[in-house]
Each structure stands twice: as structure tokens, then as C-alpha cells.
Write a structure and sequence with these properties.
Elements: E1 4-13, H1 24-32, E2 41-43, E3 49-53, H2 60-81, E4 84-86, H3 103-112, H4 114-117, E5 123-129, H5 133-143, H6 147-154, E6 159-160, E7 163-164, H7 170-175, H8 190-202, E8 216-218, E9 224-231, H9 236-259, H10 268-281, E10 287-288, E11 295-296, H11 298-308, H12 310-316, H13 319-332, H14 335-346, H15 349-360
Antiparallel strand pairs: 1-3, 1-4, 1-5, 2-3, 5-9, 6-7, 8-9, 10-11
Family: Belongs to the glutamate--cysteine ligase type 2 family. YbdK subfamily.
Protein name: Putative glutamate--cysteine ligase 2
InterPro entries: GCL_type2/YbdK_subfam, GCS2, Gln_synth/guanido_kin_cat_dom, YbdK
Length: 362
């Protein structure tokens, strides 16, 4: 069974006003004094954000339990520091992002200007183990057209600087401002992948391999493929769904490689359009079908994804739960719809943040 790990980025907010608070140093200091936290928390680019990493897990029950536990610990440390944590991919309320003072972050601020200051966005990254770089690159090549469906399922950022954006995942649009972000062409081999990354670093436009922000990449730290397209999910069970589907995609791609089935050769231009449409409407409008790149009902595209990974999810015992989770999102809406419902009902973005603080620990 391939192991799975999840990185989540959480927003630190004032429990009264709902505004982002630059208190990550205080929260991390409290976490460092608690041995039970096992160094799962890390600083992020902006001081209003907190990142945590789960341990690699083989079972989705264990992964879900760990996400819930760490979210609870993050909330406790935040309360002690005078703030709260919210699984929000963007801040609904206006914010003045505060960039961390370490050398790397300051280099980014100088290099990229306003794009760095605006990157106060929270994502969910999923790591899945692979046997080798060759297998990993084969996986990266084969999962490309399916990744926009994960954007649609995880959409949790409809507001930006106090305004409704019209997008389910505006975070993904902001993320595209990095020069190395976005979908990739087919690599074909680990050698070609490594050469492309080295060429990118050699331009001096990015600092190192860790700043190659492909939608799916070989991890610079672990023997994994890292998928980086999802918003941080409002609910822990949605994060588990995204992790389940990513592992299913990785396993299916590896099996396709073994059987000699090649990747779909969609252009980067079409993949960008698929990503844009998924970010724009989430599950409430049409998506581009991963096989045909033509507009198709979201329900049909989600079903196509489940059928694509059915063998892998059946073998891991995750198929029925994944189907139930997808059906629940299609019926009740993603985090973006939860946020919009609170806003439409109350007319208050502060109430949106308050509700999301509660949902984060539900």
C-alpha cells in the first residue's frame, strides 16, 4: 500500500473581528513547548499562516484521525496566542500580509514584488510514495488532466480582500502568479524532468528546486510525488477525500505505466483552460472532461474520475467512502458554497470567518 502524507496551511485569525493575525511565531513557540506535537508545525511565507504535516499513513482512517488531531492542537496553541485557526484558502476579509523575516522569504519578496505579498493563500498538498524517480515522472505525466477535478472538489476561496470573486477557488488563480506554477508538458523520463528543473534553477528566476511549483512534482525532500493543486479544505473529511483520490491517481498511473499505457497528450494550453474552469465554477458548473477536454457536467466528470481510479480504490478499500464523499460534496457543496451561504444569510464576512473556524475543527 502506498503511503500518503498531507500538508495543510491554516489561516490565523482574530476570534472577534475575523481579520488575519500575524501571530505564527507565537503559535509555533507554544507548539515547540509541547512534546506531543512531534514537530508537525512549520512557519509559512506569511506570518498570518501556519502549516502542518501529517506522518505518512497507509490507511485513510488513520490519516483522517491525524488531520483532526493536529487541527485541534493548532486551535489550542492559537487560542493560547490570542487567535484562532481557520481552514480558509483565502481571507474573506481585507488583509495586509506580513512576510516572514527569514532569508528565503525576503529573497522572494525582493525578486517577485507584489506577487509575494499577495500570496497569503492556503493550500493542501498531498504526498504519495513512489518506488523511483522514473515511476514518479511517469505518474506526473499521466495524472495531469485529472488534477483540475481536484481543484473543483476542494474549492474553498470565493472571497478576496473583502469581495466576492465569482470563483470557487480564487486561491488557485493567485497561485498562478508564481513564474514556475501551473501545469507541465510531458517529461517522458526522470532524466528529462531533472534537466528541466536544473534549467529552471539556472535561469536565476527561482532560488532552488523547492521553488519549482509544478501542479505535480517529485518532492525535493521525500520519495514521493507531491500534488499541489487543492485549496485547503474546510472539512477534514474533504482533505481525506483529496488524499484518497490522489493516491488512487498515482496507483492507477503506475499500473498504466507497467501495462504500457501512455499518458494523454493534452497541451498545456488546454490544461490551463481546464484549471481555470474548475477554479471558476467548482462543482456548480461545467468542467472540462479529462479525456476529451470538452465541457461536461461536473457530476459526469467526477464520476469519470471515480471510474478512472476505481481499481486502485477498490484494492485499497477506499472506493465506497470516496463515492460517498463525492456525492456529499455534489449534494451539499464545497467549502466555497458553505462560505457563500453564510455570507448570503448574514451579510457579514466576519460571520463567514467565525463559521469557518467552527467547521475547521468539526
Amino acid at each position: 500500500m502506498r503511503t500518503v502524507g498531507v500538508e495543510e496551511e491554516l489561516l490565523l485569525v482574530d476570534p472577534g473581528s475575523g481579520e488575519p493575525q500575524a501571530l505564527s511565531a507565537a503559535v509555533l513557540a507554544r507548539a515547540a513547548r509541547c512534546a506531543a506535537d512531534d514537530d508537525v508545525f512549520e512557519k509559512e511565507l506569511h506570518s498570518q499562516m501556519l502549516e502542518f504535516n501529517t506522518h505518512p499513513q497507509s490507511g485513510m482512517d488513520e490519516l483522517g484521525a491525524e488531520i483532526v488531531r493536529i487541527r485541534g492542537e493548532a486551535a489550542r496553541h492559537a487560542r493560547e496566542a490570542g487567535c484562532a485557526v481557520a481552514a480558509l484558502a483565502t481571507s474573506p476579509l481585507p488583509a495586509r500580509p506580513s512576510i516572514g523575516m527569514n532569508r528565503r522569504y525576503q529573497w522572494m519578496a525582493e525578486q517577485y514584488g507584489i506577487a509575494t505579498r499577495e500570496q497569503m493563500v492556503c493550500g493542501c498538498h498531498v504526498h504519495v510514495s513512489v518506488e523511483s524517480d522514473d515511476e514518479g515522472v511517469a505518474v506526473v505525466d499521466r495524472i495531469r488532466p485529472w488534477l483540475p477535478v481536484l481543484v473543483a472538489l476542494s474549492g474553498n476561496s470565493p472571497f478576496w480582500q473583502g469581495r466576492e470573486t465569482g470563483y470557487a477557488s480564487y486561491r488557485s488563480r493567485v497561485w498562478q502568479r508564481w513564474p514556475s506554477a501551473g501545469p507541465t508538458e510531458l517529461f517522458g523520463s526522470a532524466e528529462s524532468y531533472r534537466r528541466r528543473v536544473a534549467d529552471m534553477v539556472d535561469t536565476g528566476t527561482i532560488l532552488d528546486e523547492a521553488m519549482v511549483y509544478f501542479e505535480a512534482r517529485l518532492s525535493a525532500r521525500y520519495p514521493t510525488v507531491e500534488v499541489r493543486v487543492a485549496d485547503v479544505c474546510l472539512h477534514a473529511d474533504t482533505a481525506v477525500l483529496i488524499a484518497t483520490l490522489v493516491r488512487g491517481l498515482v496507483e492507477t498511473a503506475a499500473r498504466d505505466r507497467q501495462s504500457g499505457r501512455g499518458p494523454l497528450d493534452h497541451s498545456v494550453s488546454l490544461l490551463r483552460l481546464a484549471n481555470w474552469r474548475a477554479a471558476r465554477t467548482g462543482l456548480t458548473g461545467d468542467l472540462l472532461h479529462p479525456a476529451t477536454m470538452r465541457r461536461t457536467r461536473a457530476e459526469t466528470v467526477v464520476e469519470a474520475l471515480l471510474e478512472h481510479v476505481e481499481g486502485a480504490l477498490s484494492d485499497s478499500g477506499d472506493l465506497e467512502r470516496a463515492r460517498a464523499s463525492c456525492a456529499r460534496l455534489l449534494r451539499h457543496g464545497t467549502g466555497a458554497e458553505v462560505q457563500r451561504e453564510v455570507w448570503e444569510r448574514t451579510g457579514s464576512l466576519r460571520e463567514v470567518v467565525t463559521a469557518c473556524v467552527e467547521h475547521t475543527q468539526a
